[in-house]
Amino acid sequence: MLKYTLRRVLAMIPMLFLISIIVFSLAKLMPGDSLGGEIDPANTDPEYIEQMREKLGYNDPIYEQYFRWITNFVQGDFGKSTRYKIPANEIIMERLPNTIFLSLTSLIITYVLALAMGIYSGRKPYTLGDNTIAAANYIGLALPSFVAGVFAIYIFSFHLGWFPSNGSVDISVTEGTFEYWLSRFHHVLLPAFVLGLLNTASYTQFLRNDIIENSRKDYVRTARAKGTSESKIYNVHIFRNSVIPLVTFLGFDIVNLVGGAIITETIFTYPGIGQLFLTSVTNRDYSVLMTLTMMFSLLTLVGNLVADILYGIVDPRIRLD
Amino acid sequence: MEIMTDKNSAVNIKPPKSMSPWAIARRKFIRNKLAMISLCFLVFVCIVSFLAPYITTHDITRINMGSFSLEPSSEHWLGTDKNGRDVFTRLLYGGRISLFIGLACTAFVIVTGTIIGSIAGYFGGTIDNLLMRFTDFVLTFPFLVFVIVLNAILQNKVSGVWVLIMVISGLSWGGVARIVRSKILAEKENEYVLAAISIGCSPFKVIIKHLLPNVLSTIIVQATILFASMIVAETGLSFLGFGVPSETPSWGNMLSFANEPDVLQDKPWIWIPPALAVTLTILSINFIGEGLKDALNPKSYR
Lengths: 321, 302
Prior knowledge:
The complex is a heterodimer of chains A (321) and B (302).
Chain A: H1 2-29, H2 34-38, H3 46-56, H4 62-74, H5 88-123, H6 128-142, H7 145-159, H8 178-215, H9 218-226, H10 230-247, H11 249-267, H12 273-282, H13 286-314
Chain B: H1 2-12, H2 21-31, H3 33-50, H4 52-55, H5 87-123, H6 125-139, H7 143-154, H8 161-172, H9 174-187, H10 191-198, H11 203-240, H12 251-255, H13 261-266, H14 268-296
Helix pairs in contact in B: 2-14, 3-5, 3-14, 5-6, 5-8, 5-9, 5-11, 5-14, 6-9, 7-8, 9-11, 10-11, 11-14
C-alpha cells in the first residue's frame, strides 16, 4: 500500500508539469497582460510601457518566460497580485481559511444528514418516511447549486431573516472573541448547506440502497437466528458494512468542492478562494489566477489519489498494484 | 392419444413472435408513469422553446423605456425585467439557447467519447495506452476552472454560443470514453466478434455493426445523465457571467439578475421563472434517465 501510494505521488509530478505548461500557455493566450491591469494605458508614455515590458521580461521568448515562472513557482514565489499589490501567496493565504472552513462545515452537514436519512430510509424502506426522503432527494439532485443558493438567500435571509446573505463575518465584532466565532459560524451555515445539498442527496440514496442490499445477506440472517435484537443488527452489523463504501467518496468530495466553492462563494459573496479565482479572471490578475489554477488542479489530483487509496484500504480484495 | 393431438395442434398454431429487446424496453418505459410524464413535459418545453418566435410577438432585444421591472399583468404574463423586456418571451428564447447548448454538448461528448473509447477498447495495446493516458490527463483538469479560463480567452476572439459548446464538450468527454472502452473491452471477447473478424469484416465494420449496438443501451443512459449536467453547466457558467454572452437570453443569464440584491428581494418574477424552468427540466431528465436505465436493464422485470 505504501509502495503504491508513493508510486502514485511520483506519477503526479509529470502530470503537474504538463498542467503547468497548459496553465502558462492559457495565461499567455488571455487578452492583455498583467501590465495592462497595473497601469493606465491612456495616461502613460508608450515608451515607458515598452521599457517596463522589457524590464519585466514580457518580450523574452516564451520558453524563457515559462522557465522563469516555473522556477519561481516551485520555490514558492508565486508573483505579485496586480490588483491587491501584495504577493499572490499572501492574498491566497488570507482567503484560504475561509474556504477550508466552508468546505469542512459543508462536509459535516453532508455526512450527518446523509447518515441520518440513509439509515432511516434503509431500515424502513417503502414506507411514508422513506418515500418522503426519496422525493426530497430527487429534488435535491435536480436543484443546481446556484438555484438552491438563490432560493436559500430569498427565503432564509430576506424573508425569514435567519441568516446573513453575504460576507464571512460581522464587521462590528472584534477578532478572537466568542461572538466573532459565533458570527463566522452564523455566516457559513447557509452557504455550507447549499454546497452540501447535492452530495447529501446522492449519498443518502447510496446508503439506503446499500443497507437494503446488506439486510438480505446471509450474515444478517445468521444474526437474526441467533436472536440478536433488530436495532443491534442495523446499528452494528449492517451499519459497519454500509458506511465503509461511503468513506471512499471523501476523495471525490475534494474534487467536487473545488467547483462547488466557486459557485457558492460567488452567490453568497463569501471571501474565499473560489470568489478570488473569479475576480482574478475578470481583472486579469495573472499571478493569482495561475497559482489558483495550479492549486485547483493539484487538489483534483490529490482527490483522485485519495479516492483510489481509500478503495484499496476499505476493500482489500482490490489489488492496487 | 391425447398427447398426440396436443402435439399436432401445437404445430398448427404459429408460436407468438417473441419481442425484440428494444420492444421490451419500450413497453417497460411506457408503463413507467413518472418517466412518461417527464418525457411529455420535456417534449412540451422543447417544442414551446423552439417555436418561440411563433408563440410570442414581443421583441427580446429592444429595451423598452416605459416598462422597467413591471409586475406580472395580462399584457406581460411574467412581468418585465430591469431593461423592460418581457420575461415570458425571454424565458422561451432562453430555453431555446439553454436546451440547444445542452443537446449540442451532449451530442459532441457522446460522439467523441464513443469514438475514442471504442478505438481504445477494440485495438488495445499501445493505441489504448496512449488514448487512455490522454483521457486521464483531460479528466484531471478541474472542469469549472478550465471552462472559465478557456471561455475568457476565446470569448473575445470568436463570438456566439459555439465557443461555449466547444469548450464544455472538449473538457467533458473523458468519462464517456472510459465507460465505452470498458464495455467494448468486455464485449469484444464474445465469439460473434471473432466470427465477424474471421469472415473478413474490417475493424471499422466490426465496431459499428457488431460492437456498438451492444453498447448502445449504456450510451443512451449516459446521454440522458449528460444532457442534464450539460444544462446545469451552461446555466451555472452563464449565471457566473462566464457563459453565453450577456446579450443572448439563456436561463443562466436570466438567473444572473438575481445577483442584484434588489431584484432578488423585491422582484422575484424576474428570477423565479428561469430558476423553476431549469430545475423542472433537470428533474424530468433525471426521471427519464431512471426510466431508461430500468427499461434497458434486461434483469429488471416490471
